[in-house]
């Protein structure tokens, strides 16, 4: 059944891809001279396929309509901070494709990227049908479960949440995965992250499995996992897609996603719907990512723990949690602003305290 769904999804993707190609033909006729990324994929003259493929760093990122500025900042920091040959796969919903013309109207137009449409139908029957839950469940957060489907034919790839600023991504890409591991994540228990978590969650400590999974439930007990095992943050993933496929990671994740309706998971924050299946499937089966490569909990307020010096030396900043650098109150939004490129369509504006 799962296999059929995946096949169906792939078929839909191919159709969508063809539609996009036709769209790009159309656009090209409208604006002669503008080379669209979709086209570059096809024309051998435009793309020196064979030799460059090897060193290409594939990066998957999702683009959500109401926070497109985040994708722009992430892409801009990645491409300007690295000489690496990065190829972005931007997974988005159909309604957002037009708005993504933002990219092609800026200096980012020379960055290698392709846009892929996520079909929310992919998740039918796998996540709660309760409309209130669906609201909280942002379908694109599940795109990372399907990495090999979106980035086929490569062995190693990176997934990034959109709310990040990244230094030289080549270094992240070179993180070694242990044999047999399909992914690397940054653990929540190194001292820097752990302190942030205590503050972020108030009185609820959420840096171990107990914070995400209900260990009173039989299905969880049966797995024999230790409840006090350190959790990890799936906002940055370095993946070995060969292993991912060999171990059927996507199917395993789908299985645990479906069981969401059994209330196995500790809370209903959107992000926590995505995290528990990953915690289960990668329990004691993932490699570490250096904490400096995933500095998070950039929370605001008095007694903010990180010094500006520390933030400057961070390799990757992740504004996880509720406060976003394009929002009204957050820390270090000045760093984020340095990478922001205004939206030529005028639809997206960072909210600032002194905006008026
Ligand atoms: C795209 O265009 C090609 C050639 O112009 C055509 O054969 C094909 O049916 C079109 N695809 C879609 C999905 O419309
Ligand atoms: C995408 O949106 C367009 C226009 O709104 C619509 O015609 C098309 O059928 C949609 N495609 C998919 C795959 O949902
Ligand atoms: C990925 O996993 C495969 C299968 O275990 C292994 O042969 C390969 O060396 C790994 N590649 C990387 C880059 O870790
Ligand atoms: C993965 O799925 C395939 C096909 O369903 C199956 O043959 C294989 O044994 C599975 N591998 C693992 C490690 O579960």
TrEMBL record:
Claim: Transmembrane is one of the keywords in the record: yes
InterPro entries: Glyco_trans_8 (IPR002495), Glycosyltrans_8_dom-fam (IPR050748), Nucleotide-diphossugar_trans (IPR029044)
Residues annotated as signal peptide: 1-18
SUPFAM superfamilies: Nucleotide-diphospho-sugar transferases (SSF53448)
Pfam family, one: Glyco_transf_8
Keywords: Glycoprotein, Glycosyltransferase, Membrane, Signal, Signal-anchor, Transferase, Transmembrane, Transmembrane helix
Keyword Transferase: yes
Topology class, membrane: Single-pass type II membrane protein
Molecular function terms, GO-annotated: UDP-glycosyltransferase activity
Gene Ontology CC entries for this record: Golgi apparatus; membrane
Cell compartment(s), UniProt: Membrane
Family the UniProt entry places it in: Belongs to the glycosyltransferase 8 family.
Listed name of the protein: Glycosyltransferase 8 domain-containing protein 1
Organism for this UniProt entry: Poecilia reticulata (Guppy)
